[in-house]
Amino acid sequence: MKMLTVVGAGPAGLVAARKAQKLGWETTVLEEHPTIGTPVNCTGIISASGVEELGIRKQVEEVLVNKVRGAQIFSPNHEMVEVKKSGTVAYVVDRGGFDRVLGREAQDAGVEIRLNTKMIDIRNETVFVEHKGRGELLKSRVILGADGVNSKTRRLMGIETDIKNYVHAYQVVAEGNFNPNMVQVYLGDYAKNFFAWVVPESATRARVGLASTSGNIRKDFNLFVQEKNLTGNFCDRCSSLIPVGEPFKSVVKGNLMLVGDAAFHTKATTGGGILLGMAAGEVAANALHAHFKDNKPLSDYDKMLSPINKELRLHFKIREYMNKKTEDDMDNLFRKMNKAGMGEFLSEYGDMDKPSRFLGKILKKPSMWRLFPEALRFAGT
Ligand SMILES: Cc1cc2nc3c(=O)[nH]c(=O)nc-3n(C[C@H](O)[C@H](O)[C@H](O)COP(=O)(O)OP(=O)(O)OC[C@H]3O[C@@H](n4cnc5c(N)ncnc54)[C@H](O)[C@@H]3O)c2cc1C
Asked: Does some domain include residue 81?
């Protein structure tokens, strides 16, 4: 009998597995694909501050593709706010490679990784899996669902989600001329309730994507690339869902827990979930340790997640605020932001991961209150 079985070898599950094993608890990771990190459905951009906080610079350097210094954010009518720093703000990584580095580290710590092994069902401490077409039973005290956006574990726990809690994303690699130092973000009706992005790998290649709630992602994406005059290796399997809903009140039921996209540990503003999922993975392992060692209830995991959930709730509120804006509202807001020097303000204080830090700064600057009266309300949440 294993102490922990993690379903899914993505960043959240691998970090949780490695930490649990290091704390002394025999852990297995199940991954349905034959290789960790494929297929890739991700832009692979992660904040430099988050990388420092998690202490993973060495791992990132192994798979580094590009470093960026900021972002140009365009309103529908091409009003631009530029947020720029003199140093690196974010890293663009080979996402498949990144997951494989985390997999290697988990294995080095003693975690058993079972590839080609799909979790089919869970009943108490029995995990039903399919391995190369054959059924098997595994035994585990606790099961952590790190099985991504379409989590089967979440469904087995009876946690319902709604289609309105997701955006549909589509991304390709495009050739062209790009500023290798800057990410570009485009708001507009073709990216309803989200945005389109151009994340440079170099001066001639970029990861170009779009997410929306329109229900016709290919049409939205084609409109965008036509407008931007981009060409690329378009494909049919480059689309996926991103959770943008509010974090769940509880992600523990009996001996089942959730982490990462499965638990909606994803920023509703940007769709980013790599670093947050990894941070939550550490929390899951700590909760498990306290459970096995000191008999603490597994449900303490929910309480231990509250600093992460507080940030996630702010991301969600900002997303709700943005989604209410029409194209005209957005253009007006961008004009006002430029007048008020918002680009410079964000360049100094902006934080991709932790909006609480940035809202705190707004609250200390009354000239910004008129622009974002909601900041006062968000601050009370
Ligand atoms: C187009 C797009 C772009 C994105 N860009 C970024 C970005 O730039 N930066 C960022 O931070 N985030 C980004 N994200 C979000 C990011 O990809 C996710 O938040 C992140 O991958 C979540 O990690 P995870 O470990 O929770 O799940 P995943 O990485 O999805 O891993 C889940 C794993 O579980 C496995 N699995 C699923 N079901 C089973 C089963 N039944 N049995 C066994 N194995 C199973 C899957 O094969 C997979 O390997 C993007 C998402 C999309 C769709």
From this structure: yes
